[in-house]
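fyi for ur records
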Amino acid sequence: MRSPPAAYAKDPIRMKLLTVKEIAEILSVKPKTLYQWSELGQIPCIKLNGVLRFNAEDIGQWVASCKKAVTSGYNPFTKLEARKGGKS
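which gave:
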């Protein structure tokens, strides 16, 4: 058995590829939704020999990019605390 080239041993390319079923569980969506998103280019994916796979790192970055920042200073709990004490 041959050993991998020295360059590969120094800088290995490691991709944790996940299946449609695994990603569907993680994201709490149906597999059909993932197929639709992939066809529309809405989710990063890899197609190997006709089989859809997802790089775990890419999905993590994609989820983080979907996160919305808080744009309002409104805090519903401050209003709630004021009402608990009586009339405001």
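The chain has a mean pLDDT of 80. thats all i got for now
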